[in-house]
Amino acid sequence: MSTTKLAEAFKTLLQQQAVKNEALIYFTGHGITVSDSLGTQQAYLATSDLTIVTQGKQIIEQTGGISLQSLNNLIAKSNLSSLVVLLDCCHSGYFLENNLLKTTFTAFNLESDYYFIAACRPFQEAYANKSAQHSIFSTALLAGLSAEKANQHGQVTSADLFGSISAEPKGSGQQPIQLGWGSSITLVSYKHQTQAETFEVKDECPYQGLKAFECVVMGVLSLLSPSAPMGKRLSVVVMTARCDCGITKVFL
User: Fold this and answer.
1) Which of 74, 87, 105, 199 is the most buried (most CB within 10 A)?
2) Under DSSP, is residue 188 helix (H, G, I), strand (E, B) or coil?
3) Can you name the residues that pair with 99 across neighbouring β-strands?
4) Angle 225-229-235 (CA atoms, 0-180°, nearest 5)?
5) Strands 41-45 and 186-189
6) 151/159 Cα distance (integer angstroms)
7) Domains of the chain (ranges plus CATH)?
8) DSSP 8-state class, residue 128
9) Per-residue pLDDT tens for 186-226?
């Protein structure tokens, strides 16, 4: 995407479509830092028409790209109910550190909720995952947003997400960082499903105190049976009654 198209997309989203509403910015691609003659660095999101001039290993000049400082200023002027920014690119931490968001948070709407995650610190690179379809950060991001990571309410919040993401890239040479303002933001909700509990039904009296009467009742019923010998056949009425103490008595 060209610099003009990406800039217009940011302005349309933040100044028109998402006014007093929720907004999400997710960028995955390349990021660069440009050093001026005094050694001050500016970070840029790389676009398809970005060109650079290098001196040694440093980039000293660029044409095109989106300055993170400019994006930060655009966000500070927006009127949103909530904003989530996920940056998966090298040097993305410049968006959260080095005199950017930390110094301009006071310009934000204090009634809004903001949450930002950068794939790495300002001096680090964000690496690809050669064994997966996506980068290390985006792979962890997708896993963190999955239904398996949802809480007991079926939701994945901003706090939940960073916990999942920060645990994944350990040992990779990049450290995700976060910055938030306001309340925790629910990023995705899944339909809460409850599993039906199954119970085993046993063919026995639950009142164990009645076990002592089982032989009496069975004996009486055997005498009442038509197959019982005539001399032993009884004509009786069996009645049971439960006392206040909970003991069942048998009356013949």
Assistant:
1) 87
2) strand
3) none
4) 50
5) unpaired
6) 11
7) 3-189 (3.40.50.1460), 208-251 (no CATH)
8) B
9) 999 998 655 555 556 555 655 555 555 455 445 545 555 55
